[in-house]
Amino acid sequence: MSRDPTILALYSAHRADLVNYASAILGDRAHAEDVVQEAYLRFSDAARERPLDEPLNYLYRIVRNLSLDVHRRLGRERSMQVQGEEGERAAVADPVASPEAVAVGREEIRLMNRALAELPERTRLALEMHRFGGLPFKAIAAELGISVGLAHLLVVQALDHCRQRLARARPGDKD
Fold first, then answer.
1. 63-67 own/partner pairs: CB under 8 Å, 24+ apart
2. 114 and 76 within one domain
3. Which of 17, 55, 71, 169 has the fewest CB atoms within 10 Å around its CB?
4. Distance in angstroms (rounded) separating the CA atoms of residues 83 and 89
5. What is the CA angle 9-4-153, rounded to 5?
6. For 158-174, what is each residue's pLDDT tens digit?
7. What is the CATH number of the domain that holds 70?
8. Distances from the Cα of 16 to the Cα of 106, 135, 136, angstroms
9. pLDDT tens digits along 72-130
């Protein structure tokens, strides 16, 4: 799986500008670095499959699209975090949960554990390291011996799987 040296040279020559471009969209340099690395992998694969008419423009388009995807994902995660914090404040306001709320909470935990058990081990580990351990993608990648882009992809896939399982499941259903 050798990389085209002209593609690598183009990427290397514009990497700093690409990171600045992604950073402007994301407002976060660390995420921008991850996006640019993932963009290079996609760009390199595309260049291997077919000749690119305007490779630099294509590379910038990949960076833009990935940056917008990450920006949307981060917005959803922040929104979920805010909703969770509001729920925690509500729980503090009413320290005694109703039996129904306890039952629903236990069912959601059971469903989440089942969804996690369905994941491939590497995907589950990446999610646990990121969401429960608070590790950045770079640390996850180093721990699992994979690229930062793949670490990010594994976490996204795991989150999507868990969301789908929870959305499909109804309390009391037996799968």
1. 63/18, 63/21, 63/22, 63/35, 63/36, 63/39, 64/21, 64/22, 64/25, 66/22, 66/35, 66/38, 66/39, 66/42, 67/21, 67/22, 67/25, 67/26, 67/32, 67/35
2. no
3. 17
4. 10
5. 90
6. 988 988 888 887 544 44
7. 1.10.1740
8. 48, 25, 21
9. 888 888 777 766 656 555 555 555 667 777 777 788 888 888 888 999 999 999 988 88
Structure token digits, residue 77: 């995660």
Which amino acid is residue 109, in one-letter code? I
CATH code (residue 123): 1.10.10.10
The answer on pLDDT for 2 being more than 60 is no
Q: Are residues 89 and 5 in the same domain?
A: yes
Q: Check whether residue 11 and residue 84 sit in a common domain.
A: yes
Residue ranges making up the domain that contains 70: 1-95
Beta-carbon contacts of 48 under 8 Å, excluding residues fewer than 6 positions away, are 4
Residue 33 is encoded by which pair of tokens? 């670095």
pLDDT at 122: 94
